[in-house]
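Dear colleagues,

As part of the handover before I leave the project, I'm documenting each prediction I ran so the next person doesn't have to rerun anything. This entry is a single chain, and its sequence is reproduced below.
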Amino acid sequence: MRHEMIDHSIGGYEVVERFLSELNESQTGYDLFKTLKQICEYYNFTTFAATRFRHREDERLKDRVLLTNWKPEFLEELSAKTSMSLSLVQNVTNTAVPLVVDFRTNEFPSGMDRDFADIYLGHGVEFSIFFPLRSSGGFNGFVAFGGEGDMPAREAIMEIAYICGYVHRGLHLLVDVGHRERPKLTDTHKRIFRLLADGLTSAEIADRCGIARSTANYQIKAAISAIGARTSANAVAKAYSVDVLKDC
């Protein structure tokens, strides 16, 4: 369903301060995921992704995404367009202001084409705004919010850019976590995380895997415990933060 973007920039001081406080208090990937999700919903976006800039030549987009609510197939399709996803990142790297891309038009940043834009449109993302993040000796990358319908007002974009400037600390902690030893997970654990990331309930997971609901519940609890989480949402966020799902 199409909807209009809501401009919350007027009188938004208290909201901005709340988001900044939550970002500063974030200690885990799950904390940061929740706050980014709240920002996404408050400004009436539908998708978000926090991504670091390229470190190695063999890295693809899916290797650099730290936190996102993108569907796995969406991320896979974007990653498969290696040269275009790299061109997009390069465009974000080269700007100091938010990069606004409307996928409904034929005016794209350098290196992108209609096929790349159609991937976004195919997943219900009509536009995306990329907020570059840079810090000396810290996290370098961007946060992207996408949606459908009307673009947010310029004042709202600047407000979000200000908020995103405080995402550095939490993302830097995630990068450090990602450099640590990855948890040892079985193929069953990874499959459970992938299904949870897709939004499936325990009953739906049981149906998808052809197992009893009690078995599905047991496997979900085992997977959550294996990654050191407390809830399924916490487990999925941790799985993304240490890249255990990138090859699933």
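The CA atoms of residues 49 and 68 lie 4 Å apart. The beta strands are 47-52, 65-68, 99-102, 127-133, 141-147.

All the best with the project,
I.
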